[in-house]
Amino acid sequence: MQIGNSALNELSATTSASAPATSSSKDLENRFLTLLITQIKNQDPLNPMENAEMTSQLAQLNMVGGIERLNGTIEGLAAGFRSQQALQATQLVGRSVLVPGTTIDHTGQGGRFGVELAAPVDTLSLRILDAAGSVVERLDLGPQPAGVHGLDWDGLDGNGQALPAGRYLIEAVATDAGRKAETTVLAAQRVSAVTTGAGGILIEMPGRAPVNLDQVRQIL
Fold first, then answer.
1. How many whole angstroms separate alpha carbon 65 and alpha carbon 31?
2. For the purposes of burial, counting CB atoms within 10 Å of the CB of 193, is it exposed (0-12), middle (13-18) or buried (19 or more)?
3. Is-contact 19 26, C-beta < 8 A?
4. Do the beta carbons of residue 187 and residue 99 sit within 8 Å?
5. Pick the CATH number of 93-219 from 2.60.120.260, 3.40.50.2300, 2.60.40.4070, 3.60.15.10
6. Are 89 and 194 in contact (CB under 8 A)?
7. Burial status of residue 169 (CB atoms within 10 A of its CB: 0-12, 13-18, 19 or more)
8. Beta strands of 7-83 (E only): which ranges?
9. Which residues sit opposite 138 in a β-bridge?
């Protein structure tokens, strides 16, 4: 009677299916040791189990238990990190952040927005459009480095005239070596609440759908 690799694998699979995750390693160990003792008691005296084989089987058992303990440790660390991240995220409530979005809220004195560039560009041009889709202002910012750029708009049109308060649309076009470059327009939004769920930590803002915490590009 010998306990081989297949027997150990069968023990592990059976235990995992029939016992809670927190006790499967202990159950597997008890069952394995019971079989091992039975094997030793009933082994053929003329063909006893070799020490190397017994050592190999015990090493496999320890490996199964070690993996389970490692998984439990990682899960505990991940849960602690999520809790700490959620606690830190609550400090955003009441503050404004830049998140992907193409609108700017003109309060009567302009507004804040941003642009994210994946790589340095030779030219960066912005167009601001009103609710009817008409271009009211053009901004040529020239060469810009990669990264997040927070920008301010004074609320004036191309002729220097004040525009009525409201929500405007922003379009960005960047080029590098004559080719169109990747850009992401960022909207400034005020955080009203922070929630946690299956999708992670969500940032809630008035007038728009919640976004994941990793969508925050800059805290204003």
1. 13
2. middle
3. no
4. yes
5. 2.60.40.4070
6. yes
7. middle
8. none
9. 127
C-alpha dihedral, 105 to 107 to 108 to 114, nearest 10°: -50
Amino acid identity, residue 206? P
Query: Tokens 């440790």 — which residue?
Result: 73
C-alpha atoms less than 13 angstroms from C-alpha of 133 in its C-beta half-sphere? 0
- 96 and 44 Cβ atoms separated by less than 8 Å: no
Residues 6+ apart with CB under 8 A from 48: none
Given the structure tokens 């297949």, which residue do they identify? 6
Q: What is the mean pLDDT of each run of 10 residues along the chain (220 residues)?
A: 47 48 61 70 60 65 69 69 70 92 91 96 97 95 96 94 95 95 95 84 88 91
Question: Can you give the residue ranges of every domain in the chain?
Answer: 5-90, 93-219
Query: Distance between CA atoms of 45 and 206, rounded to whole angstroms?
Result: 80
SS3 label, residue 167? strand
**50 DSSP 8-state letter:** P
- Beta bridge pairs of residue 111: 153
Distance of CA 154 to the CA centre of its chain: 35
Read off the pTM: 0.62
